[in-house]
């Protein structure tokens, strides 16, 4: 049961996130969320009109946390492009080895709602993934990668794919294979001296802008 000192809305959102991630959206009822949050179902519905709205709010909140975490983590990544790519997949494998890891939460929930393209949570998940891709693009540009827009899209595919396969097979070897492919990809794109004017704002500003995609519902190229 959550602490009564925590604001009611936050208690609901945290309880819902924990349950949705552990068991899946369709297998968790509103009753279970209310019980875990230590309140009545009636109180829960005073804050959220439906279970669907609750899920969208959960993902919106979690996206903010995740993007802030990515920004902090990104400051510790190697400055050279090869080291950046290797560390990216090394840390992904480490994340996937945590106890009770069950895949990327946004991806799992989007797949669970695959037959509901208009679901509000699908929109939040889409904007979150776009924000992460924008962050990758900025980091590649900062390291002088040519065609960073295309390279960041390709890195995203490799990253998402390796995490899905690690979940299916339980083998972190897929992260190693993805890292090799990513290194070849970046090598083919080539690295050129960094032009600060081309990057524009700093990486931190771009991550902040990407974070705002989640609430604004808009999308942009990392070169804008």
Characterization of the model:
The chain is elongated. It has helices at residues 8-23, 30-37, 41-47, 51-74, 81-96, 105-112, 120-142, 148-169, 173-189, 196-199, 203-216. It has 224 residues and is mainly α. 71% of the residues lie in helices and 0% in strands. The model is unreliable at 193-208 and 213-221 (pLDDT under 50). It has 11 helices and no strands. The termini are far apart. α1 (8-23) packs across α4 (51-74) and α8 packs antiparallel against α9 (173-189). It folds into 2 domains: 1-48, Arc Repressor Mutant, subunit A; 63-216, Orthogonal Bundle (Tetracycline Repressor, domain 2).
* Tally of separate domains: 2
Structural class: mainly alpha
CATH topology of the largest domain, anyone?
Tetracycline Repressor, domain 2
Radius of gyration: 19 Å
Q: Which CATH architecture of the largest domain would you pick?
A: Orthogonal Bundle
- Count every beta strand, where a strand is a DSSP E run of 2 or more residues: 0
Low-confidence stretches: 193-208, 213-221
Overall pLDDT level: 85
Helices, strands, pairings?
Blueprint (H helix, E strand, L loop, with lengths): L7 H16 L6 H8 L3 H7 L3 H24 L6 H16 L8 H8 L7 H23 L5 H22 L3 H17 L6 H4 L3 H14 L8
Task: Provide a brief overview of the structure.
By secondary structure, the protein is an all-alpha fold. The longest helix is centred in the N-terminal third of the chain and has 24 residues.
Q: What are its keywords?
A:
about 220 residues; Tetracycline Repressor, domain 2
């Amino acid at each position: 049961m959550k602490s009564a000192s925590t604001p009611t809305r936050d208690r609901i959102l945290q309880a819902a996130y924990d349950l949705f991630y552990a068991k899946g959206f369709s297998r968790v009822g509103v009753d279970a969320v209310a019980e875990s949050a230590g309140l009545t179902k009636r109180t829960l519905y005073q804050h959220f009109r439906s279970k669907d709205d609750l899920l969208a709010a959960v993902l919106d909140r979690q996206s903010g946390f995740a993007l802030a975490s990515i920004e902090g983590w990104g400051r510790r990544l190697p400055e050279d492009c090869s080291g950046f790519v290797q560390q990216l997949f090394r840390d992904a494998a480490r994340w996937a080895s945590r106890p009770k890891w069950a895949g990327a939460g946004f991806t799992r929930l989007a797949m669970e709602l695959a037959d509901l393209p208009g679901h509000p949570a699908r929109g939040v998940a889409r904007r979150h993934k776009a924000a992460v891709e924008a962050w990758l693009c900025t980091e590649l540009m900062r390291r002088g990668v040519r065609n960073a827009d295309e390279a960041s899209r390709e890195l995203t595919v490799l990253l998402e794919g390796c995490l899905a396969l690690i979940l299916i097979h339980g083998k972190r070897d897929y992260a190693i294979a993805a890292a090799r492919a990513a290194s070849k990809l970046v090598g083919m794109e080539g690295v050129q001296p960094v032009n600060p004017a081309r990057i524009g704002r700093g990486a931190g500003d771009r991550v902040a802008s990407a974070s705002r995609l989640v609430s604004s519902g808009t999308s942009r190229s990392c070169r804008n």
